[in-house]
Write a structure and sequence with these properties.
43% of the residues lie in helices and 14% in strands. The chain has 118 residues and is α+β, with helices and mostly antiparallel strands. A two-stranded parallel sheet has the order 1-2. A two-stranded antiparallel ribbon has the order 3-4. It is elongated.
Length: 118
């Protein structure tokens, strides 16, 4: 393990993409089919019975049109995170493809180089 990683103390792991559309916690896509689970009830309220619709109907509602890598990296820096892990690659937003991982990497490099030049 690298010394910087062992000493980092705080890192941020970010998983944001179409699977986040439901905005109702981890394992939504599985639990929305399990009667008695909160995700099932929420799905019933918003989309109807899972036998008539599916998770594909949820992810259609996800939009990446307000994605701002510089803003997110700024939040990570403000929280004093020493590293972040972005779990995503490319998403399609309408007809526009967004490389969110590349955008975060570029934003991180900009923040690092601007801090080093001070």
């Amino acid at each position: 393990m690298s010394d910087w990683f062992a000493d980092a103390k705080l890192g941020i792991w970010n998983h944001w993409g179409p699977q986040s559309a439901a905005e109702y916690g981890d394992w939504y896509a599985r639990r929305m089919y399990v009667q008695g689970e909160p995700q099932y009830q929420r799905y019933m309220e918003h989309y109807g019975h899972p036998s008539q619709t599916g998770f594909a109907d949820v992810i259609k509602s996800w939009k990446a049109d307000k994605f701002d890598a510089d803003y997110l990296v700024g939040l990570y820096k403000k929280a004093r995170a020493k590293y972040y892990v972005a779990m995503a690659t490319t998403s399609i937003c309408g007809t526009r493809s967004i490389d969110r991982t590349g955008a975060r990497a570029a934003a991180g490099r900009r923040r690092t180089s601007s801090a080093a030049s001070r």
